[in-house]
Automatic annotation (TrEMBL):
One of its GO terms (molecular function) is methyltransferase activity. It comes from Merdimonas faecis. Its EC number is 2.1.1.-. This is Class I SAM-dependent methyltransferase. GO terms for biological process: methylation. Keywords: Methyltransferase, S-adenosyl-L-methionine, Transferase. Residues 62-200 form the S-adenosylmethionine-dependent methyltransferase domain. SUPFAM superfamilies: S-adenosyl-L-methionine-dependent methyltransferases (SSF53335).
Amino acid sequence: MWIADQWKDYEVIDCSKGEKLERWGNYILVRPDPQVIWDTPRKDPRWKRKNGHYHRSKKGGGEWEFFDLPGEWQIHYKDLTFNLKPFSFKHTGLFPEQAANWDWFSEKIRLAGRPIKVLNLFAYTGGATLAAAAAGASVTHVDASKGMVNWAKENAISSGLADKPIRWLVDDCVKFVEREIRRGNHYDAIIMDPPSYGRGPKGEIWKIEDAIHPLIRLCTKILSDQPLFFLVNSYTTGLAPAVLTYMIGTELKRFHGHVESQEIGLPVTSSGLVLPCGASGRWEA
């Protein structure tokens, strides 16, 4: 498992009974987590002294309950700064476990010894975009949500990266890649974090089990002759790491690199164990 264990401003304090107790900077949140199927005693007093609690509804969705939580606040990861706010379906605008991947590809970019062009698809609030730009890459950031792209721009400004070569695009990721193929544009590295399910701007249905392999195949057509890395993230239970390895290995075979996939996770302070948080597939030259 790849573990994001370099955080100072974020911590999984405990997890039990379908929920996790987290510290986000100076604030304590309780949020649901479907992976937490164990029923261990909740001994930490912060379970009762939280600043925010997302209650999941049995009918689907849910709602936040706040106890002295600001509308927005910041946390830091190394030299990066993220603006957080609680919004729809339990999220805060950041997936801390992804720091394990940020550290991996940042080192590859820094050691490449040449200019690196990165394409970040389904780029959300820009964690991977900022990490790649801070490491020295030029980045094309694509997400279908204008609100998310604006949030990512705010994170770039807060991180002192506003002047870095980042292209911010509100677009359908698949259609963007198809246009890049026609334009003849190429990238040295591709990052994608596709949702399990979603709808495009014109109501197109995205279901990851059906769409992920064709998208990986499509993206290989815009890789440069010397690609540096290819990263696929998945939060879909059915997409095991071995499945990611097979898809990526099949489509990038001609580049003669190495592919490995693992679960990604976060350390849990109370138990000393690791909470699994999805999976990532990494190809590298």
